[in-house]
Amino acid sequence: MDIRxxxxxxxxxxxxxxxxxxxxxxxxxxxxxxxxxISRIARDHASTL
Length: 49
Known about the structure:
The protein is an all-alpha fold. The chain has one domain (3-47). The chain is 73% helix and 0% strand. The chain contains 3 helices and no strands. The protein has helices spanning 3-21, 25-31, 38-47. It is elongated. The mean pLDDT is 96. Pfam families: YjiS-like. This is DUF1127 domain-containing protein. Residues 3-38 form the YjiS-like domain.
């Protein structure tokens, strides 16, 4: 894996975590996720890049 792809994945992970953490608990519940799901969701998203 080249460094550019690794950096893109890391940036996508960080952005996803940031955006989901900005939501309140009600918004997260509306999306069907909990705070403890955020890291997994961010990892899953970044791995698809």
